[in-house]
Design brief:
single chain; 841 residues; alpha+beta; Jelly Rolls; 4 domains; 14 helices; 21% helix; 25% strand; globular; disordered N terminus
Length: 841
């Protein structure tokens, strides 16, 4: 009995430790510094980062001769502004930063070899060291045959205090100079790199525990998105590049790409900061022969990488079971080099499908300069997968000196000491709470607020303080829509898994019943590792608090107590539009129903673009963000990526590219210039989904059919219209109606935004298509029906924010009553003056 109890206690320990890691991870806020545009006197925005020019630094120092900067005379189109200007050093020079907190930091150095007016940077040779006892690289030359930017990326532990990066020129071709185009120094999540790795693999295959990894400097050598496309910084939470794996495959025929648009279940330490969703939603799997069921030539899938000889490397392998339909059906083996093998059971590790998971190994390379990684089935005719791979060189012997990167080694690390004490106290608090909770689980009472110790540090623009474990400490101002956390616990039966109705980038969604009036609600609760965070939370509240419309999902309220970010919406009985089109067992929609849903969605978007205050661009229009109520009335949802539209004197809004694969406006993707016409393009893709009943992107199809928009328009131009229509609709659509509908789609998908219609024009055309379907009429000639004029006037109700609720009432019914009465006289500027919504994550 003693052993059994000991095992239970040990299991409880790991559960609590995992929970603590999740809570600590959730406290990470994307940093605002340091991002330096070297050589520039102005600031520049690149994706979601704001790079500061170094000519007049305020938050950092530049030593020696910072006055030499060079600017390209005729930069190529599309070249990032970071590479159009360069800082040149003719003698040893450094950048000095003030590091606030001890911990692992990302350091990136950007170099662009080109002929600037007075310096050909491709000819430069120089050394770079950190703080300055550790050499990052020596005798470095940026010359490459493609003349493309070169990025050097490092992970290293930096102590609080002063941190410097030193550039030392070396003589070359009669000149001695160094240069740099951009520098990034910022902290990563506290659990991003573990100090102890369970698997240390030598060339002979022996393995043991590797300790002290956090005291080393790690240089990124390879970062691979297996089975997918290149992922650029704007689509990665830590602004990383992920390269496709095809060039590293040893036997390409042994593998095939696999993708899945299913919702991911991030858990534990596998968060979006470890790897973005795009990595886990694609994979390489065994290339099964359709006739025999065996793998091609019975080979494993093998990748080969060039690495440094006879040094240690951190190898991080990423897995996510997107190929199975049931648990415990995917067992396979992972091989690293010749002598190491490990069996991988993802179901055992994650307990659910589509759950990201990763494993770290420290691998000592031999003198071949190659590293081999393979996956293969555990039993004959089974499958094996790999989603992503990272290889980082452990640079512990680069300089022969300590790698403790601080210029103030004697300074006592008070924040670290306080953090350790706080962490211990928090862990003990969680332990006590869990033990008591295991003894007696009960439902919270309406007047009871569950309290937690102050773990979650709020970031963003609205607050900069710790949560206080009470109803205060909000990351957003009180907008009058706040709902106490214990009310939400009651509404969802303490987040009962049986009430779970979905999950997405922000977190899990539960069905709930709020108050004694039994108001059905959808409760969206953020969780660590979700793809969305504080900025999206603020944006959603800001947008939906200002507007109300029959075809926009209504925000009932929100909760931001005790580290929680919860949004409460009206409940949409029929779910998403997508679920009624494909990949579900729901009854098929008639063509009339589909047109009515499209019209409702268009009305909602038209209101956003023209009737809402300041004009709003949704930026993530897709079939999963169009919801249906019990009467199949369509409502546009999910405003976490929305942006204020351009003013009357603007042609566009400049912003980093956000959205979903297959729906993003190609013009916006190339130029980063957002307009309402970007929503029109995305809506055109939704219209195609409605017509064809297939996803916007399906990588399982032949290459020419993967992208729905491209494939459908190609078929349409060839006069093969009947080949793209949902088979369930064939023979049930009036030809004139579908002709009008497809013509509308074609204009929505115009490559140039100026050639696309407004949402008002789209709405007019869809209503006309519905009229043709209902009456069986014939479409008139173009000169008889203009889509430019005659747009019907739509009611654009403006609903102001309700006043502060919780401070003035005693019962939850009063909360609901006041929420339903939108009668506030508060001005928008008064209510939202504290919120500054920046670019998406």
């Amino acid at each position: 009995m003693g052993k059994i109890q000991a095992r239970k206690n040990l299991a409880l320990f790991f559960v609590l430790h995992y929970s603590l890691v999740q809570l600590v991870s959730s406290a990470y806020v994307l940093p605002e510094k340091y991002f330096i545009d070297c050589g520039s006197s102005t600031n520049v925005a690149v994706d979601t980062r704001n790079f500061t020019g170094d000519s007049n630094p305020s938050s950092f120092n530049v030593s020696a001769n910072p006055d030499i900067s060079e600017k390209l005379v005729n930069p190529s189109s599309g070249l990032s502004p970071l590479y159009q200007i360069v800082r040149v050093f003719t003698r040893p020079s450094s950048y000095e930063f003030n590091i606030d907190d001890t911990g692992m930091h990302m350091v990136r150095l950007h170099f662009f070899p080109s002929s600037y007016p007075n310096y050909d940077t491709a000819m430069a040779v120089f050394n770079v060291s950190a703080a300055p006892v550790f050499s990052l690289f020596m005798n470095f030359s940026v010359l490459n045959s493609a003349n493309t930017p070169v990025l050097k990326e490092y992970l290293l532990s930096i102590k609080s205090g002063k941190f410097s990066i030193l550039f030392t020129p070396l003589p070359s071709h009669g000149k001695a100079f160094a240069f740099v185009n951009a520098i990034e120094v910022f902290p990563v999540p506290v659990d991003f790199i573990s100090d102890e790795v369970q698997f240390h693999i030598s060339p002979s295959g022996s393995n043991g525990v590797y300790q002290g990894l956090q005291s080393q400097v790690l240089e990124t050598v390879h970062r691979i998105n297996v089975g997918g496309l290149k992922i650029t910084p704007e689509n990665d939470s830590l602004w990383r590049n992920w390269i496709p794996d095809d060039m590293y495959l040893y036997i390409p025929a042994a593998a095939r790409n696999k993708s899945n648009s299913t919702i991911l279940h991030y858990q534990g330490r596998a968060t979006e900061y470890i790897a973005p969703a795009h990595v886990y939603m694609t994979a390489k799997e065994m290339n099964m022969n359709a006739s025999s069921g065996s793998q091609v030539n019975n080979f494993n899938i093998t990748w080969r990488f060039n690495v440094s000889k006879n040094v240690s490397h951190l190898v991080r392998v990423h897995f996510c079971d997107i190929v199975s339909t049931d648990l415990h059906t995917l067992d396979f083996r992972l091989f690293i080099n010749k002598h190491f093998m490990q069996k991988i059971d993802l179901s055992q590790a994650t307990q659910q499908l589509a759950a990201p998971y990763y494993i770290d190994y420290v691998v000592d390379s031999d003198d071949s300069g190659l590293m081999w990684v393979s996956v293969g089935p555990d039993l004959k005719d089974q499958n094996a997968i790999l989603n992503g791979l990272e290889i980082m060189e452990v640079m512990n012997n680069r300089s022969g000196s300590s790698s403790s990167l601080s210029c103030n080694p004697k300074k006592k690390n008070i924040p670290l000491l306080v953090g350790s004490v706080l962490g211990s106290a928090v862990f003990m608090g969680i332990l006590i709470f869990a033990v008591l909770g295991l003894k007696q689980r009960r439902k919270p009472k309406p007047n009871e607020i569950t309290t937690w110790l102050p773990l979650y540090e709020c970031g963003g623009s609205s607050s900069n303080r710790l949560y206080e474990g009470t109803t205060n400490g909000s990351p957003v101002p009180n907008l009058g829509l706040k709902i106490p956390f214990n009310y939400i616990q009651i509404a969802t039966n303490n987040f009962d898994p049986n009430l779970l109705i979905g999950s997405g980038g922000f977190g899990k969604v539960y069905k709930g019943v709020l108050g004694s009036r039994n108001m059905k609600v959808a409760v969206k609760r953020s969780e660590p590792g979700g793809g969305q965070g504080l900025l999206e939370f603020q944006t959603e509240i800001t947008v939906l608090s200002k507007i109300r419309h029959r075809h926009l999902v209504s925000l009932i309220g929100y909760c931001d107590e005790q580290g929680e970010m919860i949004l409460v919406y009206e409940f949409m009985e029929r779910g998403t539009l997508r679920s009624h089109l494909y990949d579900s067992n729901l009854p098929s929609l008639s063509w009339k129903q589909r047109l009515e849903i499209c019209i409702g969605s268009a009305i909602g978007l038209h209101y956003l673009h023209t009737g809402a205050e300041g004009r709003i661009i949704h930026r993530d229009v897709k079939s999963t963000n169009i919801l249906l109520d019990e009467n199949y009335v369509a409502k546009v949802a999910d405003f976490g990526l929305s942006k204020p539209g351009q003013s009357l004197d603007q042609s566009h809004v400049s912003t980093g590219v956000k959205g979903s694969f297959g729906y993003v406006d190609p013009e916006y993707f190339k130029s980063e210039q957002l307009t309402e016409k970007s929503d029109v393009y995305s809506f055109g893709v939704v219209l195609l989904e409605v017509l064809c009943a297939r996803p916007a992107i399906n990588r399982l199809l032949p290459r020419d059919q993967v992208n729905l928009a491209q494939w459908a328009m190609q078929r349409h131009k060839k006069g093969l219209l009947e080949h793209i229509i949902d088979p369930l609709l064939v023979g049930k659509i009036n030809p004139s109606s579908v002709k009008k509908f497809v013509g509308t789609v074609e204009t929505c998908l115009s490559e140039c935004g100026a050639d696309r219609p407004t949402m008002g024009d789209v709405l007019w055309d869809l209503e006309y298509a519905l009229k043709l379907q209902e009456t069986g009429g014939v479409q008139r000639e173009p000169h008889e029906d203009s889509t430019i004029s005659g747009v019907p006037k739509l009611p654009m109700p403006r609903v102001q924010c309700v006043p502060s609720l919780i401070d003035a009432i005693d019962t939850e019914d009063e909360v609901l009553t006041m929420m339903s009465e939108s009668v506030s006289k508060l001005s928008e500027s008064q209510v939202f003056s504290q919120l500054m919504i920046n670019d998406g994550r």
